[in-house]
User: What shape does this take?
Amino acid sequence: MIQKYSNGTWIWQNTMSFENDKYSMDKDPDEWCLRQSKRLKAIDPQISIQMSNNKLFTWMPGELDHAIKFRCNQSCTLDHIANTLQDVRKRTNIGKYSPYKRNSFK
Assistant: This one.
């Protein structure tokens, strides 16, 4: 399928869909990781595991990105990243509460 449809427009559409699909806490980690890794493989079939993981880490929110990088090494598998995302989502308060907004009184 990649060889059949790998023209410039198809690659550009996959790149845009990869960049627009950022991880949020309401998404299922397994589905998100699998979908994003398939998009990365479609964009660049020769991508290394380390580069793929780095790109996945960059599309997570800041606190979550730090928590996942701390628990996973650069060459871990996609299953390990998804399981770690699931654990962080269950055990921490990252992303569960919106930041405190101060009311301004006049």
